[in-house]
Amino acid sequence: MRSSLIRSATTSLTRGNFAKISSSDLSFFERTVGSSYVKTKDIDNYTCDWTKQMKGSSKCVLIPSSTEETSTILKYCAEKRIAVVVQAGNTGLVGGATPLFDEIILSTSRINNNFHLEESSGVLTLDAGIILADADYLLAEKGFMMPLDLGAKGSCQIGGCIAAGAGGIRLLRYGSLHSHLLGCTLVDGKGTIIKLGGSLRKDNTSLHTAHLTIGSEGQLGVITSVTMGVVPRPISILCAMLAVSSYSHCLRLLSLARSKLGEILSSFELIDGETMKCVERHLPIKNIFNEPHDFYLLIETHGSNGDHDGEKLNEFVEEALGAELAEDGVAAHSENERTHMWRLREESPIAAAKDGYIYKFDVSLPLEHFYRLTEETRKKLGTRARVYCYGHLGDGNSHLNVTTDGEDEELKKELSPFVYNWVVSHGGSISAEHGIGQLKRDYRSLGKSEEEISLIRSLKGVFDPHRILCPYKMIPSQE
Amino acid sequence: MRSSLIRSATTSLTRGNFAKISSSDLSFFERTVGSSYVKTKDIDNYTCDWTKQMKGSSKCVLIPSSTEETSTILKYCAEKRIAVVVQAGNTGLVGGATPLFDEIILSTSRINNNFHLEESSGVLTLDAGIILADADYLLAEKGFMMPLDLGAKGSCQIGGCIAAGAGGIRLLRYGSLHSHLLGCTLVDGKGTIIKLGGSLRKDNTSLHTAHLTIGSEGQLGVITSVTMGVVPRPISILCAMLAVSSYSHCLRLLSLARSKLGEILSSFELIDGETMKCVERHLPIKNIFNEPHDFYLLIETHGSNGDHDGEKLNEFVEEALGAELAEDGVAAHSENERTHMWRLREESPIAAAKDGYIYKFDVSLPLEHFYRLTEETRKKLGTRARVYCYGHLGDGNSHLNVTTDGEDEELKKELSPFVYNWVVSHGGSISAEHGIGQLKRDYRSLGKSEEEISLIRSLKGVFDPHRILCPYKMIPSQE
């Protein structure tokens, strides 16, 4: 049986039956990680998410430097029933790493010493607190690349990426984290250190438990080390942009790109006409096309041979124009032009944020419904709001943004239930890559069967029997 | 703490405390699936594995036609504490689908009606009993391909592939099943039907539980439906073979292939000189090189543009010869030549089986140790046995084969402990793609920590609390 569609987003939360922090607890933590790494003051950077929309409170932030210190802390917290929220780079978009009541914050930022690349196999083992861009920088020297790339790469940590199930802009080419993760070290909610998986590309000697940590949002434990396959750094990166008159043409162009660009297609991003106008209105960036169009597609290729890739991309653009699927099209001829194209896409969220009070969504939809959500939302809201759509069309992942001139309580109450019910009733997901956290907590059971909810609750019980880790978020407790 | 290396492979098994099948049980099963699908006679094809090395007994084979019938059976068996072994195409190599004592056999062969491809996204939902080659044939019409390919494709079922964590010959290019699986329907050991995951390429609204079924060997439940991403069918498939004088050159050629062939490299297979001689000795196939060599590499590319792929492959072969990394090299110029090359590799196991009494291994190793295992085994066994090595070098997966003129009890006792201890102490896996089943049961804890074993035992308890599914195999019970 599936849960019926929800009508309202309001649930009042009450604090769980967790222990309050005492001074003897703080002394224990100080003995464990050193007093400089038990922070009790000036911790706003930790208690507030980076969008500044969610703010919790906490008695202390603990910053262990190792798996073992993490284990000591969690053993203690399990015994004392102290609630803990795990925080990596604090770049999440759903408040998953932000405390709600008085959970202590366990930051993985100092677990960042070990980095070992096995060059012959392309297998990387690294501490979970290492920042994504730093890992990628170290790999570049050896001709390798992190398979995932996202806006937050300069701050997000690899352990956080795993826990968030991060997607990003080249999932189309390299696949999700499930394609790359081989193993990890997890400190579970009892403080037990468990090595899940290993460092081999093939190993069928046990359940593939490491994959349970992807998208687990700290519910099962603290990831302290990650082993994953990395990919050869592409020798050629090319980029083109097309202007398109209808969504159905966008879909036909996606098919054409799949067949013409094949194995080198790495990004297929959509920006709708309203979003492009919004970008031009609020930011000092010009559309690369002189005329306005209804849709823009940004296509990138990653390959090992620049001549071959260039031929493929030119053929694709020519065929797109020749078949009148695209109204206009341009390939980037310099790094500057490529940067310009990507800025239009990557600064779309920034432009939308400048456009007024903002309501952000991150949904997955079957492709036939991908853009209908935008159209239906526009129809529903009429002149009450502006609706923007951009996203990873190649992955069916739409970032819908709605803005109003000021905060509109009425609209706030209506909008999320409308969008989420529409998405679920059209076979979509209410969170493609951002997760549930606290922002989508009230919708976490939407479209899920009782059996699945019961299963994930039991699985959490195996890893975290006292349910001290990241309460009030993705996995329902017995409440 | 890791389990210490084992010394002997002998464990005497006793039957678990399961119910014996009564005539009223059989009547219930007949009412559930129809009397034609409760087989009690002439069931040797089910009680014996296809290698004919493992033979169990069973009172009956049940062949349900749907998820619902499977659920009814498992609910009943859970209540009555009847042990069940799940069987798909019965092509496994470790006896995982073969009963030991008197477990009933639940075959998924009739759960094979539904096949739905969503063309715009390349997402396929199909019943678990559909045969891999049939699925691939249906996809071919639409320009898509199953990402995995293996020798048993004409008989193995897709649900069995997931449960086995099947690898195969193009994992290097398309990745493991974790890269493709999006969701599945599982009937757990309580008979509960659970939809795990979904049909979207991105969905972060729950734990990614579907991935737990990969390589689960029937321990968690019966997979009845699978949803996965499929890949565009390559337009160009090219093949080349190199003759090489040393293993270190093989490794340098793997690096060269990664950089020259990049995104189109789909197979990088090794056959050692002894294996090639064995093939020529026992089978009517000729080596494609006139002179014998110490190593042969078979390289295949899958791409979207034949001209580009051909240029890349030629450049690679020329550089391999020019740098004297290869002693000889030839690209296939016809489908016949390509078939010839692949027969040399695919019939290596057949030749080894004809060479005498055979001991087969399927191990993963870090690449620097990949071939050392063969050398060390040869050194240890001297003239007592012949040692052959072939396998998926690109994945670090070696199929080591040892043959003797007749069955040698002494060697039988020594060999597996020697190989498995060597593999584990060199950072490898004792089962790269075949699994544990009953064949490797006595080695299942080798190199695993107590914490991991305890975890997988608890996870099994969540799905199958009465531990009726596939007993005596991968996951230790409390015994």
Word description of this protein:
The structure is a homodimer of 479-residue chains. Chain A is an alpha+beta fold. Helix content of chain A is 32%, strand content 20%. Chain A is built from 15 helices and 19 strands. In chain A, the strands form four sheets. In chain A, strands 12, 13, 14, 15, 16, 17, 18 and 19 form an eight-stranded antiparallel beta sheet that branches. In chain A, helix 7 packs antiparallel against helix 9.
The class by helix and strand makeup of chain A works out as alpha+beta
Distance between the termini of chain A: 20 Å
Task: Classify the beta-strand content of chain A into a percent band.
Answer: 15-25%
User: Which spans of chain A of ≥5 residues are poorly predicted at pLDDT below 50?
Assistant: 1-10
Helix content of chain A: 25-40%
Oligomerization status of the protein chains: homodimer
Instruction: Assign the CATH architecture of the domain at 115-232 in chain A.
Output: 2-Layer Sandwich
How many helices of chain A does DSSP assign? Answer: 15
Estimate the mean pLDDT confidence of chain A: 95
Domain FAD-binding PCMH-type (chains A, B): 54-233
GO molecular function, one term (chains A, B): FAD binding
Protein name (chains A, B): D-2-hydroxyglutarate dehydrogenase, mitochondrial
Keywords (chains A, B): FAD, Flavoprotein, Oxidoreductase
